[in-house]
Amino acid sequence: MWISSEHAPKLDGSGEFPMYDRTRNAILLLLLSIPGGAFAQSATPWDSAYFGVNMGDASGNTCSAWTPNGAGVDSGTDTVLSNRTCAGGGRFVGGVQLGDNFQYKRVAWGFGLDLDAAASKNATQSVKYSGESPPPGTYLFSGRQTPNGFAVIGPRVGYAGDLWLPYLRAGALIASGAHDSLVTFTPAKAAKSTVSFDGARNFASAGWAVGAGTEIGLNGPWSISLEYLHANLGKGSNTTAACSGSVAACAAFSGISLANVHDGFTADIYRIGITYWFDYWGR
């Protein structure tokens, strides 16, 4: 291409073109900086604090049983009035995870916290009893048998690959939400309940969780995760519940109590997640 003398860059006293060289050098520096900044991969991508979201399914099982006791209880009541309710099947879980990882060569370890909400399950069963003792009427057994949320806090350790991080984890499990058992009694031909029996919690508030998973890097500060956890909250305390209500209404239950017994709560949790690693580009 021909450049006329009118538009050609002018020489300074040293015989160089100062403005032209400065512009060219600036462009060259900008171009050279792009590969080093936008596309460089960290040598230790899993050495970072992280934050993400997750969702999945929790399949659990727990049972609660009520049995009438007392000298005046009719024989055969155990087969009629005794109640055992169980909650099982899957339910949705979802929440956030955060923590900090450290990496040395191909070993990554760290400490994390998960906070998840869960679709809780309530067990309700109505039994009509026509014997004499306990009093005849409708007994309604109810109680929340799965938590409506949980937290998992503890360490994890894994193999730090370039784009994947398989790991093992274990930690404490803390459940949220009320989970007591209750029996209400409505006398025959009555419109509403007159007495109740308050049981203990269907499952404990704290337990443990163990599992495994993997982070799969997306060639940048983001990763997707697949994880399995086995959660165990243990069983709630067994209790003997006495009648709660007016003196006149509870008089019919004189010498009668209801024993409340619980099985342990366990759940298998499968989740997928997406995570952002804050320090991925920091080294």
Write a short abstract of this structure.
With 283 residues, the protein is mainly beta. 10% of the residues lie in helices and 56% in strands.
Quickly list its features.
disordered N terminus, 283 residues, mainly beta
Query: How would you state the average pLDDT, rounded?
Result: 81
Radius of gyration: 33 Å
Taken in chain order, the helices and strands follow as: HEHEEEEEEEEEEEEEHEE
Largest sheet: 8 strands, antiparallel, barrel
Shape: rod-shaped
Task: Report how far apart the termini are.
Answer: 45 Å
Proportion of residues in extended strands: over 45%
Task: Describe what this molecule looks like in 3D.
By secondary structure, this protein is mostly beta strands. The protein has helices spanning 18-38, 77-80, 247-250; strands at residues 49-69, 83-87, 90-104, 107-118, 122-129, 137-144, 149-159, 164-176, 180-187, 195-201, 206-217, 222-235, 239-241, 244-245, 257-262, 264-277. The strands form 2 sheets. Strands 1-3-4-7-8-11-12-16 form an 8-stranded antiparallel β-barrel. It has a 5-stranded antiparallel beta sheet with strand order 5-6-9-10-14. Strand 5 and strand 6 form a beta hairpin. The longest helix has 21 residues, at 18-38. It is rod-shaped and about 100 Å long. The protein starts with 17 loop residues before the first helix and ends in a 6-residue tail after the last strand. The model is unreliable at 1-9 and 30-39 (pLDDT under 50).
